[in-house]
Amino acid sequence: MGIYIFTKERLSTVNNNHAKQTITAGLLIALGLVLPMAFHTFGMGGPVFLPMHIPVLLGGFVLSPLYALLVGMVTPIASSVLTSMPPLFPGAVQMMFELGTYGLVISYLYHKRNISLFPTLLTGMLAGRFVAGAVNYLLLTQFLAKAFKLKVFLTAAFVTAVPGIIIQLVIIPIMVRLLEKANFIMGKENINDSRTQS
């Protein structure tokens, strides 16, 4: 009887965490649709300020790796379909892999490897840009029959986007700490439970 009660409570906890992750992922995707529109309204271009990246990066810290990956991959595609920002091909396709990498790497390092916040954020941002470069190369050379220019890509990823990068490095750690103080970010055990259930 005791084992049954324990198992039932355990399953209930897993289901609750699963529901919380699903709701949180949905909210972050919605935020990823709204923020770019808000930035564009005030003339703040996406390639410079990277508004869509913010909820995805945050998702890496508050979601399990699977959910964080899904948020990163779904957000640019949904935004392209619903708002035409960015264009579906090659823009949204490239961003799907880039942002998916952000979410996956950050969640894995933070929740599975217990790496501290700032190194996790930097590593995730660099990993996403590396994947973006690789995907950009494949799309240009294999599908669009165009030359991949490394200097152009690096300029867009690290120079043009400097304002957005600075915003991310300042805002994301503050938001994560506030969410942790509010007990919104699930503990490692609950993250593991949710991933197992997924």
From TrEMBL:
Keywords, comma-separated and alphabetical: Membrane, Transmembrane, Transmembrane helix
GO terms assigned for molecular function: transmembrane transporter activity
One Pfam family matching this protein: ECF_trnsprt
Membrane keyword on record: yes
Transmembrane segments: 23-42, 54-79, 91-110, 117-140, 152-176
Protein name: ECF transporter S component
Organism listed in the record: Thermanaerosceptrum fracticalcis
